[in-house]
Amino acid sequence: MTFTEEDARRRDLADPGHRDLFRVPPAEGGGYEETAYMAGNSLGLQPRATRDELLGDLDAWAQLGVEGHLEAARPWLPYHELLTEQAARLVGALPAETVVMNSLTVNLHLLMVSFYRPAGARTRIVIEDAAFPSDSYAVRSQARFHGLDPDTTVVRLRPRAGEDTLRTEDVLAFLRDEGDTVALVMLGGVNFLTGELMDLPAITAAGRAAGAVVGWDLAHAAGNVPLRLHEWDVDFAAWCSYKYLNSGPGALGGVFVHERHLGDPDLPRFEGWWSTEASTRFEMTPTSRPPATVEAWQISNPPIFAMGPVRTSLDLFDKVGMDTLRERSLRLTGYLEGLLDEVLPGRPLQQVTPRDPERRGCQLSVRTTGMGANELARRLRHEYGVIADARQPDIVRFAPVPLYSTYHDCWRVAQALAAIFPTGAQRAAATPEEGR
After folding, report:
1. Alpha-carbon distance 280 to 300, whole Å?
2. CA distance 193 to 186
3. What torsion do the CA atoms of 171, 174, 177, 178 make, to the nearest 10 degrees?
4. Which member of 108, 138, 275, 389 lies 3.0 to 4.6 Å from 271 by CB, making a disulfide possible if both were Cys?
5. CA torsion angle for 219, 385, 390, 244 (degrees, to 10)?
6. Which of the 8 DSSP states describes residue 119?
7. Which residues does residue 156 pair with via DSSP β-bridges, in sequence order?
8. β-pairing, 98-101 with 253-257?
9. Chain-wide mean pLDDT for the chain?
10. What average pLDDT score do residues 34-50 get?
11. How confident is the model at residue 281 (pLDDT cuts 50, 70, 90)?
């Protein structure tokens, strides 16, 4: 390979990232102490600050009991407000448009209660065919909830024959030609399988021009690529915090609702104790008085020990900045792609993520026809100390996360793939000639 280990080490010295702020799992194989962790698009690593800050919230409970709601160093009653401005900056929103609450699919359902309002001929929901299964289940169940047939109500946009990713022009053409039948467009900002970054502003504009509501699942986009949700005129969005936002398994997600919808009395919502104005919460009246902010979509009081790791992570993102992370992401992912360009030819491996850096985040998905995805991921981990994410039957996803991944991690990925799938020349070199 043209790219050497020494070259990778030099790049890490010049462009170090923030690996020192995270706990990296020990490697199970490969001769290196730490794992080359490439699965941050599935579960991000633990920030070193998380443990101590979470213990601080636990100590407040032990020392104050119920009085911690108002007297803790980080009081529990308004705790969610500690996350609002940072989360808003992360996704390019106004604070009034942003709240951290619940988990991703729960939030999508709560938002669709408000924004999926089928009527007349306008009933269809548009998603991508390669949507994450949970999104497919959610929109199909919403169609059934409204008495509609999910098989005809849900439109699954597919790539062209022989291609792996959706073309923006094909999405726009569908919305131009059939948009008068569409009630809701709800695509993934970055596709979980292929790593394709959708053209959010163009698709949002086309959907709204067609008279549809446009929402986005940003599970693989938040913390991965810069977002400008308010500027792009997105109606709503939801995201999780356990992937690129490094807030722990099952971490709380986030919600965005554009300010033009806030305070609209005609917009239906499910409500609960936290849906009412904070100043009226303890009046114990039977009627909610929701604020003219996205906090009106809250239902239950926030789980403090789940919010703590999100707050810790958002603080880290706020200090580093998404634009800075995006710049390193382009360099790091481009370096991995250059390595794969040397390794994949002649092997039963194919990159399916778009090659245009502007059409992807920090993920390169590779299709394997030489063995199953699970088996390849198993060998990478146990023989080479590389943790990647498998999606059966044939996709392995590599995510060089700019916060903590290194150029040396990328180099180890390429070395491992080359060793697992030796070329004909390599196999011949490893086999002694007869008679020698």
Report:
1. 15
2. 16
3. -130
4. 275
5. 0
6. B
7. 127
8. antiparallel
9. 95
10. 98
11. confident
